Amino acid sequence: MPVRIRLQRHGKKGKPFYWIVAADGRAKRDGKFLEKLGIYNPNTNPATIEVNVDNSVEWLNNGAQPSETARRILSYKGVLLKHHLMAGVRKGAHTEEEAEKKFQAWLDEKSKAVAKKEENLSKAQQEARKKALEAEREVSEKRAQAAAEAELPETPEAVSAEEEVEALDAAPEPQESVAQEAEAETAAPAEEAAPEAKAEEAAPAEEVAPEAKAEAAPAEEAPAKEDPKPAADKE
């Protein structure tokens, strides 16, 4: 009969976990199985995987075919690597001790990588928790400050100042002052225009008087003309 290595679902709705089983390929997914080889719990971070490596290798040697998900899990735990190494032992490529050393070295490297990943995840979780606590603290401080400000009574000085500002805004402007300002604005241009007109009239008269004086001055300075005829000599 064809044997399949596959996952069998367990757990409750929304939080499933799986058994890794060797079962008849014609059986139902969650039906009877031949052997339980391990567990797979994706609800943890990183996922929890436990596999019986030797029994899984034996089933693979006997011709069992893993499903796609089961193949990835077996590869992650080194089952497929050991199956490959044991095939080399049967062919005489290396001894069983050498195959075991290679497999153990691979397991050590894998365990270090997993430990490093778990450490990074724990640091990230701690930082996220720290940021969340700081955000909660800031929110609580703001709420306490707002509550303290709401409980403080208003000072009388602030109240009186606000009342004065409101009274000034509400008071209407007197109409008489507006009329006086309008009259002053209309009278000012007329007063400014009168001196300008007087100055313009006086300026031409003053300019004409110096010109007349200048014309009279050459007439006074001109010498008297002498008689061209010479006087007759007295005999």
TrEMBL record:
Gene3D superfamilies: 3.30.1320.10. Residues 117-144, 222-235 have a biased composition (Basic and acidic residues). GO terms for molecular function: structural constituent of ribosome. GO terms for cellular component: cytoplasm; small ribosomal subunit. The keyword Transcription regulation does not apply. Keywords: Ribonucleoprotein, Ribosomal protein. Residues 145-159, 168-192 have a biased composition (Low complexity). The keyword Metal-binding does not apply. One of its GO terms (biological process) is translation. It comes from the Bacteria. Residues 117-235 are annotated as: Disordered. Belongs to the bacterial ribosomal protein bS16 family. PANTHER family: 30S RIBOSOMAL PROTEIN S16, SMALL RIBOSOMAL SUBUNIT PROTEIN BS16M. This is Small ribosomal subunit protein bS16. The gene is rpsP.
